[in-house]
Amino acid sequence: MPDQLTERYTELLTSGALADDPGQRRIIEQLVQLSVDLAAYHQSDRKSGISSWFSGPVSVPGGLYVYGGVGRGKTMLMDLFFEHAPITPKLRVHF
Fold it and tell me: What is the pTM of this model?
């Protein structure tokens, strides 16, 4: 799923819908890593029964604080991430 996030962003660049922005690329890389961390956490969270007693604690993935000026693409990047986030159920909140 992280590959889908990168692919979708690249498609938007290639189509001309987005202009290349090094800041956005850095955020995409961080969102991809967060996606990988969430997928790993979500899969390990499903362990049950006696095997869960011996697997040790699972670290909860951290978040990502995205900030910047108006019109930099923060909301668009978060929409892309939400669309491809490897968890369900999910809730998107914008403030």
Answer: 0.78
